[in-house]
Amino acid sequence: MKLTINGKDQEYTGEEDRPLLWYLREDLKMTGTKFGCGVAACGACTVLVDGQPTRACVTPAASLEGKKITTIEGLSTPAGQAVQKAWSELDVVQCGWCQSGQMMAATALLEQTPKPTEQQITDGMTSNICRCATYHRIRGAVARASEIMG
Amino acid sequence: MTMADTATFSPSRRFVLGAVSFGAAGFAVGCDFRKADAAAGPVGQNMLGPYVRVGSDNTVTVFLRHLEMGQGVSTGLTTIVAEEIDADWSQMRFEHSPADDKLYGNPAFGGMMGTGGSTAIFSSWEQLRAAGASAREMLRQAAAKKWGVDAATVTVAKGQVTSGANKATFGELAAEASAITPPDPTTLKYKEASAYAFIGKEHDPAKSFGRLDTQGKVHATAQYALDYHPEGTLTAVIARSPKFGGKVASFDDTGAKAVAGVTDVVQVPNGVAVVATNFWAARKGREALKVTWDDSAAETRSSDAMFEDYRKLLAKPGLEARKEGKGAAALQGAGQVITADFEFPFLVHAPMEPLNCVVEYKPGESCVIHSGSQMPTNDQRAAFTVLGLKPEQVTVVTHVAGGSFGRRATPDADLVTEAANVAKAINGKAPVKLMWTREDDIRSGKYRPMNIHRMTARVNNGAIEAWGDRTAIQSIMEGTPFLPPGTPDFSSIEGSNDIAYAIPNISVDVHLVKHPVPVLWWRSVGHTHTAYAKEHFFDVAARKAGKDPIELRKQLLAGDARQLGVLNLAVEKAGALPAGQTRGVAVHHSFSSYVAEVADVTVNADGTFKVERVVCAVDCGTVINPDVVRSQMEGGIGYGLSAILGEALTIKDGAPVQSNFYDYTPLRMAQMPKIEVYMVASTEPPTGVGEPGVPPIGPAVANALLASTGKTYTKLPLGTKA
């Protein structure tokens, strides 16, 4: 079965129920997508599937035939680049483990809503947990990324 | 036994209580800079002392003896060296040091390597200033020799070494400098604070003077232990006893072995390990495993029943931790006596990177551990003990950790012990990656101990005349090398026994309880509960005395300039209270730093409430990196608020009730207040910031709710309603 990951075709031959997360991390050695909870409760494993934020830990790889999958390693859209730049400028990260997922969620938010209000930022980001509680800076960085996008 | 010697409990002396005894402590395995960047030069070369390597590519790498787990030590410690060696910031790099107590022991941990107690900066300040100044001197000497000039004519600035027309980069002098004998440490000269280029300077993205771990984490190139996955790695998950204290009686692995990808099912000391070619297979294998548990020594109670047992203890005096004036006797007398029991639940650290480590074991030959560990030599000891190797045969590679909050500092080296036992059971046929699922993390310990504080005060003539604080709690320290036998557990009462308010009669005592639920230090340790009990009950007592709690704090802290300083700064910066909100304030001293927090809260008509804004003032002595201090205060406030609002691990019939982030619920963005952080200008030596931001937020919020509702908030977490 063919999956398109960061614009590159990959042949998936694994089990039907194996989540995309483990295919990315263990088989493709793309470890930027992180394991946090395994039950779609924290967002550390967020990737984009046809632009929509998706939890890789509960999404079987085999269910994604023909879909376009984007991971942190392939974050190349203007919104994605603005997000990474803003995250750097504000030194958002602490431990950093959740931040790939946070940046994927922020990218999806800004692609749909380039000029989000404070409430829209909160709504777009509140399903991603950061145990270091960098929320204060994430909020600022999403707003800054929106500015960078112009 | 009494705890009459209160000086023993000084928080600034935590972990300094005695020689840490590990039997094999002090073993050294030499330098193994295996992760060295090839461009920097050959591995292990160009070392200017144990902490600094100048690469032939002109990079300056600082070897961290502390773990970067999000708290920013990779930037803070590196900043100290950059300042004294006089580098350009763009040269600076970091690496975790090898496991070696002799070279990299933490003096605040009795000489054992360890990250914790917010000690990284304060225990490294003199040492890394010396490391930087010494390396700078070696570069100067090397330049003088190379150019045939007097060393007195050689100057160093922004990564350039100069004498007259002679110029060289650090990289060009690296090889020669590493051959120079390091100068006598007593001859080293340090920069004046007024000449600092980095210390105390604000982050400026335009100058790229930011966190050194930002780029790797933003672009996902940073490698955590869970990302390390050498070819052929087998993944292990362990079925552990559902009840605390249970043991394996027997198991049937027929179902597990039938799962495609499962290679081995082996019994290990604390359960049954399922080993597979990938995580998904290991997890499915564990689901198909049937284990019968021997619960004869297991905990059987619920946490409610434990609280009931704790309450019975509180009827009697415990071990005395502090007595001022007439102590407990003064709690009876003229005026009004008020009392409240504050109940604190077990808390889970739940770092975002689930617990793991990788062990590469060759029987009789070697073992390499990949881990995000706060105590690498302790982990090394666990591995060579389990595997029957010599200390020098075990190498520890420390990776950045995806959070910890204390969880990766385990005296029993739980992760490495488990992984080494699995590796041994499969005879080292492949690298073993031990993984804890989030459910394992929530349900298997180790927790912030549940506890009760029975607070009592006698209020008379507008004053608090007597103060009583009696706790029942499990000891974190007993049985660990950090607490010599016969020494009372200071971590249970820190923050209670050193209450700074000038109250004439004070009594602090503690009952140390024993049961099988495993406990551990959780970011800010005893202060997680002592600060709440002290600071919230202070407001209750102040109001009973008819006093404004902030004004009474100022009055009773008149003799403690640094607590008073942060209190005044936070209150001043908070300014006017917006209409419709109430305000609470708390101030607390922990890990040698001082923090005051002001919380503004809205209580809605339906009883729900929202923490709108927190203003924080911190005095941590000399500020090394203001933005790291700010981020630790922001994160500490969020971490503390998370627990106070919504975290509890409860127990039913000896087993945890919660499983994952849907029922153990950390703070989310919608609950995060706006935060402002202010630092007191100081020339005192630097002290910790990883933990001290946590303790004041709970009581500040509770005091704001008290101001709105008049209620005392005795049961945590607070939940969603005031």
Secondary-structure content class of chain A: alpha+beta
CATH superfamily of the largest domain in chain B: Aldehyde oxidase/xanthine dehydrogenase, molybdopterin binding domain
Mean pLDDT of chain A: 97
Mean pLDDT of chain B: 92
CATH level 4 superfamily of the largest domain in chain A? Beta-grasp domain
CATH architecture of the largest domain in chain B: 2-Layer Sandwich
The tally of beta strands of chain B, per DSSP, is 28
Shape of chain A: globular
**What is the name of the CATH architecture of the largest domain in chain A?**
Roll
What is the count of helical runs of chain A? 5
CATH topology tier name of the largest domain in chain B: Aldehyde Oxidoreductase, domain 4
How many domains in all of chain A? 2
Rg of chain B over CA atoms, rounded to whole Å, is: 27 Å
Oligomer: heterodimer
What would you note in describing this structure?
The complex is a heterodimer of chains A (150) and B (722). Chain A contains five helices and five strands. Chain A has 150 residues and is of the alpha+beta class. The radius of gyration of chain A is 15 Å and the shape is globular. Chain B is of the alpha+beta class and 722 residues long. In chain B, 26% of the residues lie in helices and 23% in strands. A seven-stranded mixed β-sheet of chain B has the order 9-10-7-18-15-16-17. A five-stranded mixed β-sheet of chain B has the order 12-22-21-20-13. In chain B, strands 23-24-25-28 form a four-stranded mixed β-sheet. The longest helix of chain B has 28 residues, at 120-147. The radius of gyration of chain B is 27 Å and the shape is globular. The model of chain B is unreliable at 1-38 (pLDDT under 50). Chains A and B meet through α1, α2, α3, α4 and α5 of A and α5 and α15 of B.
